[in-house]
Amino acid sequence: MILILVTLSLGLATILWRPYLSITVILLHAFVINWFAVKFFPISFGLYGSVGTLLLYFPIILLYFRGDKIIRKYFHIYLVFILLFFLWMYLISQYHGVSWMKYFMFFRNHFHYFLIFPLTIYTIQRKNYKWIIYPVIGILIIQIILFSIQMAIPSFQNYLIVEFRLTTDGLIRLVSEALLRGKTFVGTFLRPANIGNFLAIVIPSFYLLKILRILRIKRTFFYLIIIFLVSILLYTGIRTSFVTFIIISAGVLFILNKKTFTFFVVSATILLVVVLPTIKSLSSEYNREKSFENPLSRISFLFETTERETITEETTVSRTANMLEHYESFIWGNSHYTAGGFYKGISSITDATLAFNFIEYGIITFLLTLVLFIYPIKIIYTQSKRFFYLSLVFFIGVLFQTVTDQGLFTNYSSIPLFIILGLLYVYTIKQKNEI
Question: pTM for the complete prediction?
């Protein structure tokens, strides 16, 4: 409890002192201090998450009453959306005869991080890009240092992994036993999928910002960071994150420079042909029960083509297919899970989030959950077609994460997504003003 009070007090004081440090406070809390708290203090995971929510809403409310136009505009949009969304949830609850509160509790944390978008715009316009970029680099350098230590001392992984979290129901397992036996990297992100999905967005974002000359660091240092980050991504062993990274990187390269895109495609194809025997050898070592003992083998199984086992059977993609078999109502969904039931043959609904939202709540809810993520892309479209396509690439990548994970609806994916959308929006405005 002491850590919660200290973190909250220092965070609120920092934001009150300098509102443009809000993003820095939020990033440190979400991606560093959160791990520290769960690791060393017997506190409720959910309670400490509430601290993060307060640190997000406090600068919004503070700047709202100070009359900041950007904050007011997007906060109004946010409030209208929340009102309409939960009004629709009320109608669904009446249709299915299920308590509205159950719908509220399920979706209560899905949309907070839309507010990162106006905070990013505010910070850049009041100060400059470095107050957004440098905190992210700081988080990444911490992960690189921890990764380097783990590579030198493999047992250091045991120190980074948090096996259980404390809740009101007692100790709950935070990671699988397979992960504990493995050699994967989690850093301060608690789970490999969290840091993997985060890096899948951040790495191509860095390249984009370097090309736009927003990120001004020496070329050697830049490529060194990229090499480390890609290595970390591979050592998470998360295939969805790796595929997302490829999708976003390819899209960014294609839009920014088609010649560079062609060069990398040709080079990657040649490299793939050369190292294919090694990849096949790694994939042959893959064992589902020991999947994290060799993260590279887990990633390489993407290229497995033998008939002994398909990639679909080995990943959570199969859960999405299974979920779709429970279809009942196109408009209203079935609310089976919300009513207290479970889906047979599906061990984790969070591994099939998009399919679950559609089957459980219907098509209108499915589309509504995407509105706040699409809105920034819409306003970027009015400013620049090129940057619209870039923002769309990032959205599609994170949407792909949501097929086999919670993706869009986690802070690990939504925070970097809304930051890059905010950066792109401000950049287009500044470019227009300079013409």
Answer: 0.92
